[in-house]
Amino acid sequence: MESTSPRSTIGLRRSTKAKLDRSRAPGQCYDGFLCQLVDMWEEVHASREPGGLRPEGMQYQSIRNNR
Q: Per the count of CB atoms within 10 A, which of 11, 52, 55, 63 is most buried?
């Protein structure tokens, strides 16, 4: 039976899931936290790019590479 729920599954390393668990609010669902995180990322990067986000899609660098 095919599910009608508009959901998807993603794979994460255990260390990444642990970071998400430490950062999200108690009881907050992963979907809500990830949406909030992406919205914040877009807001920060839109202010850095002339004219907003790049038309070819979002590009980013790892935080580790910027230290």
A: 52
